[in-house]
Specification:
- By secondary structure, this protein is of the alpha/beta class.
- It contains five helices and five strands, in the order αβαβαβαβαβ.
- The chain has a five-stranded parallel sheet with strand order 4-3-2-1-5, with helices on both faces.
- The termini are far apart.
Length: 137
């Protein structure tokens, strides 16, 4: 009987921990500004429903363009505002350094909210191994 109560208590404790655990998600941007527009909207909606989610946006290839100084969406709106608002909500924005080298870009060309990772695809893989859900808008 004691073993049964112990197992039941362990299951209840595990369920309580899982319910309180923070969701971790990686959003993968690698194409164009249209993907960034859609992806930022997805991230905002995600946080509106799950404000505690830990979100990392990893950008490589043409997906880095929305994080460049002066980048604008299809309607002429600057990406800097929405990115800054999401960063204030805890979203991390990471840019692939391999992309910088291959496209001859400099870190100084990007907005201040952007950070850099040696390889975007390696970073995505490591986040997934660590338990992050993967979303590609």
């Amino acid at each position: 009987m004691a073993l049964r109560q112990f197992v039941l208590a362990a299951l209840v404790a595990g369920a309580a921990f899982a319910a309180s655990a923070q969701d971790s998600v990686v959003y993968h941007f690698d194409t164009d500004l249209a993907q960034a527009t859609k992806g930022l909207r997805n991230v905002r909606n995600h946080l509106d429903v799950d404000p505690a989610a830990k979100i990392t946006v990893v950008a490589h290839a043409n997906g880095v363009d929305f994080l460049m100084e002066g980048a604008k969406d299809g309607n002429g709106g600057a990406f800097a505002g929405p990115v800054s608002a999401l960063a204030a909500r805890g979203v991390k924005f990471e840019i692939c350094e391999i992309t910088l080298k291959s496209r001859n870009l400099k870190k100084e060309q990007f907005i201040q909210e952007a950070t850099f990772t040696p390889s975007g695809v390696v970073r995505i893989a490591k986040l997934q191994v660590a338990g992050s859900a993967y979303i590609k808008p």
